[in-house]
Amino acid sequence: MIADEGEADLDTQVAGAVAPRAAVKFVVSETPSTAASAGIDLSALYIVDNNIAAVLSESYGACEAGLGTTGNAFYNALWEQAAAQGITVLVSTGDNGSAGCDDPNKVDFASGGLAINGISSTPFNVAVGGTDFSYTTASPFSVYWSATNGGTSGTLSAKSYIPESTWNDSCALAGISGCTAAIINANSTSFVDLVAGSGGPSSIYAKPAWQSGVTGMPNDSKRDTPDVSLFASNGQNNSFYIVCQKDATKTNSCDLNSPFTNFQGVGGTSASVQAFAGIMALINQSQATVQNPAPRQGNANYILYKLYKQNATGICTSNAASVSASGCIFYDAVTGNISVACKGGTANCSNTSTAANQYGVLVSGGVPAWKATPGYDLATGLGTVNVANLASAWSTAGLTATTTTITASPSGTLAHGSNANFTVHVAAAAGSPSGQVSLIATPAGSAQTGIGPFTLSSGTATFNTNMLPGGTAYNVVAHYSGDGTFAQSDSAPVLVTVSKESSKTMVGLVTFDFATGAITSTAAHAAAYGSPYIMRIDVSNAASVLCTDNLKNGTVPPIDTIPCPTGNVAVTDNGAPLNDFINTNIG
User: Fold this and answer.
1) What is the 3-state secondary structure (H, E, C) of 106-165?
2) How buried is 560 (Cβ within 10 angstroms: 0-12 exposed, 13-18 middle, 19+ buried)?
3) What is the sign of the dihedral through the CA atoms of 339, 344, 347 and 348?
4) 3-state secondary structure of 491
5) What is the pLDDT of residue 296?
6) Distance CA 158, CA 149 (A)
7) pTM of the entire predicted model
8) What's the angle, vertex CA 325, arms to CA 319 and CA 328, rounded to 5?
């Protein structure tokens, strides 16, 4: 795990390297001191609510069990809304192997048992795991790498596809007896024995329909992760990703012709998920047509799993033979595991002794959890992909075309915040499409607003919403997100006009204890002269309800249910400018 600045550099640079012509939008939100929401959650909300991209990737994680009912409901609802708008959400499974509730930054062994990342476990996102390059005596490092075109930096160049195994830095890779006290104690500060690509079954979500009928899929009735994997090694086989964080280099340089000492070597599923985000941008590009120049895929698992089930000859065992196999869509890693070290006597540990200095590996059914096997497995999912072949095969999944229409819409002028009624119908030549629809509103001169999701019943969704943004005669389009049988589609736009609503502006001070820095009030109206404070300005609707109240109150799902105000506020002192706050913006 790396700090937030390094994480941001990794995420943007890896995604941009895979899809160099894609627009990479990096959304940053400060974690507020007065609302119970992390900055990454606010960024994700902004991306989805404003519908700003076709692909959303996130490389943070949180223990599914630790998120609780509210936390899991938040991510489930947010990724559901994203998918309904056609946004492909990709989330890393994590870097703590099969121990999703143990922190690889703090300890070298697990004590919380088998667990997974709850941000990546919903049925509405693609969960991306990690692999590593696999070299054998018969096919050593030199078979796949050439030093003849490395340039002045002495770097190597890959000759071909390189066979893959699980990414696992821990002693558990060696098997049941791999993690001894001597190894754990020797690594007590490096924490390497809790580092591996993550995966496993969800404890709360049922198995989605698109995971049924897949060779190797566990018969566990659970949503299983990962869905797919990509290279994620952080250097175990002297292979890793490079990124540049200029203020961290020895020479303050990011020159690719300079020695690698000017760059940072990184890995983990933080890298593999961003690489897959770049792949999804390439998939979108490959599917563009004159009629649809900017296609979206929504929940890509519909296509990924369907292609896997339909293309037996496109699934190649990831070994030396795959190097010359031209038709591979998926590379199936069949060696290694993602088990990690565990403290003896703790949940799912192979060593049941509770005595001091006793260690083992995480197991399920007496074997390391989780092992790579032929077909789908909880270590690497469907495996990794051949990007060119995946793009070529994408349109062959055989989804039935659909037509989406808005058959009822608001008439006349609506007041902002009032309910508007819609009926959206999705039709196909045969059958009744299932799944969800969303509304995409595009006011002139403003960001788009995504509204939904709304569930189809017999191909129709009838609903009302108070989330339409203000604006005059702007377009609202209904988007159908598709399912495993029927393809996505968009309706023709309808015009709506939404006038302003009344608002209230409230001013308060966030005050602090001068000695400790602890917050003493979030809405004070007085403070001692010279004491530290933050002026806070809230804009609510006429009923004094803030759009962020649901986030603060922990309701389920904790997502805004009234529109947020936008624009600027001006702060004055009896009509004169208050120069201490010349750039106050509403947020």
Assistant:
1) CCCCECCCCECECCCCCCCCEEEEEEEECCCCCCCHHHHEECCCCHHHCCCEECCCCCEE
2) middle
3) positive
4) coil
5) 96
6) 10
7) 0.91
8) 85
- What pLDDT digit, counting tens, does each position of 132-151 carry? 999 888 888 889 988 776 55
The answer to whether the CB of 409 falls within 8 A of the CB of 418 is no
d(CA 382, CA 379): 9
Q: Which residues contact 71 (CB under 8 A, 6 or more apart)?
A: 62, 118
- Sequence-separated (6 or more) residues with CB below 8 Å from residue 388: none
C-alpha–C-alpha distance, residues 2 and 5, integer Å: 8
- What parts of the chain have a pLDDT lower than 50? 1, 34, 551-558, 582, 584-587
Distances from the Cα of 172 to the Cαs of 94, 361, 387, 482, in angstroms? Answer: 17, 6, 31, 41
Residue 326 CB contacts under 8 Å (≥ 6 apart), including other chains? none
Whether the bond between 557 and the residue before it is cis, its omega within 30 degrees of 0, is yes
SS3 per residue for 543-566: CCCCCCHHHHHCCCCCCCCCCCCC
CA distance 277 to 55: 7
Contact 67, 53 (CB under 8 A): no
Map residue 340 onto helix, strand or coil.
Answer: coil
Q: Please give the single-letter amino acid code of residue 79.
A: W
φ/ψ of 203, rounded to 5, equals: -95, -5
Q: Is 531 helix (H, G, I), strand (E, B) or coil?
A: coil
Q: What does the pLDDT look like over 520-547, one tens digit per residue?
A: 888 888 888 878 888 888 888 877 887 7
